[in-house]
From TrEMBL:
<feature type="region of interest" description="Disordered">
    <location>
        <begin position="490"/>
        <end position="509"/>
    </location>
</feature>
<dbReference type="InterPro" id="IPR019734">
    <property type="entry name" value="TPR_rpt"/>
</dbReference>
<feature type="region of interest" description="Disordered">
    <location>
        <begin position="659"/>
        <end position="725"/>
    </location>
</feature>
<feature type="compositionally biased region" description="Low complexity">
    <location>
        <begin position="711"/>
        <end position="725"/>
    </location>
</feature>
<dbReference type="Pfam" id="PF12770">
    <property type="entry name" value="CHAT"/>
</dbReference>
<protein>
    <submittedName>
        <fullName>CHAT domain-containing protein</fullName>
    </submittedName>
</protein>
<feature type="domain" description="CHAT">
    <location>
        <begin position="607"/>
        <end position="877"/>
    </location>
</feature>
<dbReference type="InterPro" id="IPR011990">
    <property type="entry name" value="TPR-like_helical_dom_sf"/>
</dbReference>
<dbReference type="InterPro" id="IPR024983">
    <property type="entry name" value="CHAT_dom"/>
</dbReference>
Amino acid sequence: MVFAAPGEALTRAEELLGADPSPLHASVAHQVIGIWQRDFGDTRLALAHLRRARDLAARAESAEREADVLATLGVALVHAGRTRAGLAAFERGVARGSGHTRARVLFRRAYVWWVLGRHGEALEDVRRAIPVLRQADDVIWTARALTLRATVHLALGSVERADADFTAAELLWDTTGQEHDKADAVESRGLAAFRSGDVPAALRLLDEAAERYAKLGTPTFMLTIRRCEVLMAAGLATEALAEADAAVSALDGIGGQSTRKAELLLVAARAARLAGEPQTSLARAAVAVRLFAGQRRTWYETHARLVLIEARVATGHGSGRLVADAAAVAERLAAFGAPAAPEASLLAGRIALDLGWTADAERHLAVAARSRHGGPPLARMTGWAAQALRARAAGSARGVLEACRRGLDVLDDHRMTLGASELRARATAQGAELAALAQRASLVSGGPRRLLGWSERWRATVLSAPPTRPPADPVLLTAMTAFRELAARAEEARTDGGRPAPALEREQRRLEREIRSRTLHMRGEAPGDGDRFDVGRLLRRLGDEVRLVELAVLDGRVHVLLCGQGRVRRFEAGLLAEAEVEAEHVQAGLRRLAHPGAEARLPLVEAAGARLQRLLLGPAAAHLGSGPVVVVPPGRLHRVPWALLPALRERVLSVSPSASSWLRARDTAPPPGGRQVLVRGPGLASGGAEVPELSDRYAGRRTPSEGGTGAPQAGAPAGDGTAGAGATVVLEGGEARVPRVLRELDGAALAHIAAHGTFRADSPLFSSLRMADGPLIVHDFERLDRSPYRIILPCCDTARFASVGADELLGLVTALLPLGTAGVVACTAPVNDAAVVPLMLALHKGLDAGLSLAEALRDARAALPGDAVHQATGWAFSAFGAA
């Protein structure tokens, strides 16, 4: 019962002890309390109860009872870090027990061997236990033993054997009422899915296990460890670090298992390293190594030493001693049969290369490279990274490019199994080293065309295929509706009283976590990664007039790849770090200019724009010709107001996340019918003043909103609440509600959404536009069959993104581009609301005349008054895409 219904078992045991039981029964009760405290509470209390249970079993003169308690005590002692005493308790337990009881003791000792990382001994003990348990028709303990054997197989990389045992165990669990063990089986299936490379399935199963544990009211420290491993593989290292640190604090708060604390610290150390926090990684790994050593857990200690070495290298402490340390770790991991062994060999080879020890590097890298032909995706990528470094050391640019291509192909296949665009974006970080190696090799030997090809190979790849549509999941839809309502209520409370509403905000954050969790479960549908980028096709589409400027960053310096007139030319510009600082100065200047009275800052902002041009375009600025320009910046420069740069100020200028994305936008056909949608949300300082004027301008084409008056346009579908072909629909006031807005946006030719925008740097896919019933978030847009062909977003922060992965952007604009939107006008900085109105009216005038978004925006800027506020407003807007 202690695993089927832990709370009830604890209560029953305490009641039994209060009834003056016999020594035999009292031994059982103390053992149950000891198990509960061991797994869910204070380890010190667990040991006290289990010693009392052992003594009572001896008084009852029951050798079988004593053997059983000794096994439970042995597990508790090992979890408390007292390995030698724990193993001694098992020796006595095996000697005291016989038959069925001894099989249960052997199973628990096998579990301890697994905890200690001694997998050979674990397999031997469980091999001896399973036949006896089966012969005794002990369903529960047989299922436990099969689950344990599967877990050991996974630790050794034997996924197929693990799957067979997990399947057999699950069939047995279905015949029992052991709810805790059933939850554990679901958790184990999640681990197996992760080891086989299926991240969405792993997240789904681990979340299901967490729900089951929550119903039982039991802590889930092992589940946290496994979930953190999956989060790291998905590129969510910062979240993994936060979860692991929180679990350590919770474990310390209840005086929990020392073994679990060490494992959580190891996970936290790995997460901190991946999150770019080497000092935090160093601190966590050092404590983990010390704890594992004291617990005599050599397998785990060796893994912790690997992370410790990685953290030292990340803090700039490469040395010959670390080469030897990494090599020794690699040998020990290989002896254990641990899948992490190639990582350690790669690390040793990388440090040796940095020191110029080419012979040592080749030896270690050759060992690591063996993993490129088999195993899960990330292990194969480790092997291809090692092979690429070998080729670079040998001076073979061709070998580098081939290894990088093969490694990135592996990661492409892995990414496309991920349905959520966030996971796809973050997963690219695992290919950043391969992409950088290929770009350097291209720079040395391949010329500008090859460098452009490799720059495109790993830039904005999330936009290469539409995201998987969220499933018709009623729980997800209910959560999104509740989230919207709560967000609206919280905003209303802040507006009315000027103070936040903590209870509403807590529930809003809970719903955010639920929505995000369920979207991360989605599997990808598109095989492969679509068409490969073709430089020749790009040059043909550009023709003689258009120039595309792609900025590649190699070793911190900006390289300008100028495409047009049938060729690609390369120019060196400035340092990326200096450009980022200058871009922040420009942003600050534009924020000041959004308010009247800051005119004196205009020359300073213009001078900063000239400095930005030197850093970002360098000598290429003199070779742009006189025609339209498309800028393709790296993710870290997404907030640059490109129209401020002197060479681009009077241009027809558009921005694109990648050349491939621009080509797709250029080839996207507008939808038939040309429906236009004008939306005005609440809370705007200007009141969305341009919308009524645009509504009057389009009055001849306007379709009445639901509840309005007038005859519907010819061709409008009856009864679906959506405007017909060629119509204009205006949604404002109470009609600007998310469900109605989404219906009208789906398949529209043009959408103008005047609504308060909020960018969420902490969770970019919850960036939103405020509607009458709450926020319209990025996840909502992903439910559209086809987003509008052109979208105009006239409010602040609508063109802000989070830069994640290798060179990916997450935000509102990048969510729209793969969904059928070919062009977006959005704002990269806070703007003056009143000054936006004439800009938007002039922009629509150009669109009415048949201009593209970029052409209309250029003319709209020129039509504005010449004061500082209006100039800053024009510079803050950019045209994205190619429509």
